[in-house]
Design goal:
Blueprint (H helix, E strand, L loop, with lengths): L2 H15 L5 H11 L3 H13 L1 H17 L1 H4 L2 H22 L13 H9 L4 H14 L8 H24 L1 H10 L1 H25 L1
């Protein structure tokens, strides 16, 4: 598997994982609406950079799990369950999202973006579930450090791209995120499909 493919896998799952309405992308959209695009870029950069260590820890934890023979035996099942749970949590959160909230962006910038990203409770489990599921299903291979960092850089670039697009296309994209349930459900559906695929592989190979 080439480094470029690994990069785009990280980019894709980071991009779609940033779609559901949440504090980070809603702030990026609000900054765009208020014509604070430069501030939105700094904010998006900070939020994106924090994906790198979270995903790196998730990759390392996945390697630790793989190295444990007792756990590795059932890794496909574990990855499948994690992705299914994350998928259903994502769908639940979309349904519960407060779509009428207005965000005060007066003091938002790089520092606030960094803080919000650090406090994001879903970053670690999301990347652990996605990475484990992709690796156990054979869709992702990280044989060396170059591949690992290509994957992580793809994740950072994917998040940054989505947030900057959200800020640039703020009025249109904000409306779509608020009203179009299909767009909001994409990440959850993708996770559930991958979870089912990994579960089927585990059953067939057991």
């Amino acid at each position: 598997m080439s480094v470029l493919i690994v990069f785009f896998i990280g980019f894709f799952f980071s991009f779609i994982g940033s779609i559901p309405p949440g504090s980070i992308n809603m702030i990026a959209i609000q900054l765009g609406i208020e014509n604070k695009f430069k501030t939105a870029v700094y904010f998006s950069l900070a939020a994106s950079v924090m994906e790198y260590p979270y995903a790196w820890i998730a990759v390392g934890f996945g390697e630790f799990i793989t190295s444990n023979p007792d756990v590795a035996m059932h890794l496909k099942w574990i990855g499948a369950v994690v992705m299914l749970v994350l998928g259903f949590i994502t769908l639940r959160d979309v349904k519960k999202a407060n779509q009428s909230a207005t965000i005060n962006t007066a003091n938002y910038g790089f520092t606030k973006g960094l803080l919000l990203a650090i406090l994001n409770p879903m970053a670690m489990p999301y990347w652990l579930g996605v990475t484990t599921g992709l690796k156990t299903s054979g869709m992702l291979q990280l044989p060396d450090q170059l591949s690992v960092h290509a994957y992580l850089i793809g994740i950072v670039v994917g998040t940054f791209t989505l947030l900057v697009l959200a800020a640039r296309l703020s009025a249109w994209l904000g409306s779509k995120l608020h009203r179009n349930k299909f767009i909001q459900f994409i990440p959850g559906v993708v996770l559930i499909v991958l979870g089912i695929y990994s579960l089927v592989l585990y059953i067939l190979q057991s």
